[in-house]
Design a protein that fits this description.
Helix content: 25-40%
Structural class: alpha/beta
Bound molecules: 5-O-phosphono-beta-D-ribofuranosylamine
Largest sheet: 7 strands, mixed
Number of helices: 8
Order of helices and strands: EEEEHEHEHEHHEHEHEEH
Strand content: 15-25%
């Protein structure tokens, strides 16, 4: 039976047909206090969807940062990888998840879901797919991404996750960092909102650099998104 909380139905965790999943319509429900909280919340809340493909440590920081926030809430975690750690994190934190595949991203299904959930701001946190032009157009200056390097260097197609840190270490760079930027229809090319730097040490491996970069991301991404929320005109 579909679970309810005091404020109405709890939003869902949707299993779609990613990787040929047997039952594209299976819906599991995540009862949670958090889900109830945002359902009962102020209609003027900025509703944030986080899209992620991997572990989801940034997604978790964002969810926690906005859990008690006066103006915004993470209301949905969208994911394109059924085995991604971010799904467990979202479940544990009581945030509804939405699992989709590449075709659903391209054909407008994901856009419909985001609009149906009245999402105001889309935050990419380790999301591996290109955002289609129609989705960019539907959320003008309302989609942001974090990249684990100092763009425009070490960005573009194929430059993600470990590939970035391997390239930076191989080039013997003295510094690296993070870039938070608006998303357009090309990988890593949107207008920059924020950058922070960290050293690359001679003894660094891609793993040790990745750990330093992750710490930088966790320290800054929620606050940069909060600044964006504060700048948004929301009815
Ligand atoms: C982060 O390094 C982010 O910059 C990149 O993907 C990684 C995601 O890490 N786009 P996590 O899944 O949030 O731990």
């Amino acid at each position: 039976m579909r679970p309810h909380c005091a404020h109405g139905p709890v939003a869902f965790y949707q299993r779609s047909s990613v990787n040929g999943g047997a039952d594209p319509l299976t819906r599991l429900f995540a009862p949670s206090r958090l889900a109830c909280a945002f359902r009962s919340g102020d209609e003027r809340m900025v509703r944030i969807a986080v899209l992620a493909s991997g572990s989801g440590s940034n997604a978790q920081r964002l969810i926690e940062h906005f859990a008690q926030h006066a103006k915004a809430r993470v209301v949905l975690v969208g994911c394109d990888q059924p085995e991604a750690g971010v799904l467990q994190r979202a479940w544990d934190l009581g945030v509804p998840s939405y699992l989709f595949n590449g075709a659903e991203l391209k054909d407008g299904t994901v856009q419909q879901e985001l609009q149906g959930q009245r999402v105001d701001l889309v935050v990419l946190a380790g999301f591996m797919r290109l955002i289609p032009a129609a989705l960019v157009k539907a959320f003008p200056q309302r989609i942001v991404n974090i990249h684990p390097a100092l763009l425009p260097r070490y960005g573009g197609k194929g430059m993600y996750g470990h590939h970035v840190h391997e390239a930076v270490v191989a080039a013997k760079e003295k510094e690296s960092g993070i870039t938070i930027h608006y998303v357009n229809e090309r990988y890593d090319e949107g207008e920059h909102l924020f950058q922070a730097k960290c050293p690359v040490l001679p003894e660094d491996t891609p793993d040790t650099l990745a750990a330093r970069i992750h710490a930088l991301e966790h320290a800054h991404y929620p606050q940069v998104v909060e600044n964006l929320v504060n700048s948004m005109q929301h009815p």
